[in-house]
Design a protein that fits this description.
By secondary structure, the protein is of the alpha/beta class. It is 42% helix and 21% strand. The chain has 8 helices and 10 strands. Strands 7-6-5-8-9-10 form a 6-stranded mixed beta sheet, with helices on both faces. A two-stranded antiparallel sheet has the order 1-4. Strands 2-3 form a two-stranded antiparallel sheet. Helix 5 links the parallel strand 9 and strand 10.
């Protein structure tokens, strides 16, 4: 199979190839929120494929150098961003920390694991952006430690309006290696889906909470 030259399309194709992202508009998934969704994403699967893992790491580094410049520290968001962030930190020769979803309830009750100091600049690594809520909790934890968060880089985003609003309000720049619109384009071009389901997939992204209700009707 011939791959795309455009990095965002190539990342999307990789995610589809290994079924890290599955598209099933006619047999939707149910998310923990209760939403019916035509898409399921598990970017942890990329770690099992050395060629894809390497490409994603390289794209993260290029994105960071282009949009943020080299920070003092790379931080991964638990759990999906931990391995990705560690790979990026290794490639860039930088210290690495990770941020828990909540503080430990025992021991030192850390929320940030690893050594980081007030005043240090950080780029945060995430695997997937949905609404951005959990990802921005990590940003806030780093800021509360006194760190300067240059921004966040993620493998993929659904591109929800809510997420865009949340990142804007948090004054946190988000850059992703690929996104939902690019994914649909790649899926059609590489015959993962037919064009007759594109309208349904587009409507889901526009109103995910109501999409399932309309589907049932």
């Amino acid at each position: 199979m011939t791959t795309f030259d455009d990095p965002a399309l190539k990342v999307a194709e990789f995610l589809l190839q290994i079924k890290a992202i599955k598209l099933q508009p006619e047999n939707p998934f149910t998310w923990a929120s209760g939403w019916k969704s035509p898409i399921y994403c598990d970017n942890r699967k990329t770690l099992s494929y050395p060629q894809i893992r390497t490409y994603i790491r390289q794209q993260f580094v290029e994105t960071i150098n282009k949009h943020f410049a080299k920070p003092d520290v790379i931080a991964g968001v638990a759990t999906g961003g931990i391995a990705q962030g560690a790979l990026v930190a290794q490639e860039m020769g930088l210290p690495f920390v990770y941020v828990r979803s909540e503080a430990k309830k025992h021991g030192l009750t850390n929320m940030i694991e690893g050594d980081i100091e007030s005043g240090q600049s950080v780029v945060v690594i995430e695997d997937l952006i949905s609404t951005g809520g959990s990802s921005l909790k990590a940003v806030n934890a780093l800021r509360e430690r006194g760190c300067v968060v240059k921004g966040m880089a993620a493998i993929f985003t659904y591109g929800f309006d809510e997420a865009n609003k949340n990142f804007k309000e948090a004054k946190c720049t988000l850059k992703t290696l690929s996104d939902y619109t690019t994914l649909i384009d790649a899926a059609v071009k590489k015959n993962f889906i037919s064009e007759n389901v594109v309208d349904s997939l587009t409507k889901w992204r526009e109103n995910p909470a109501e999409w399932g209700t309309a589907l049932i009707k």
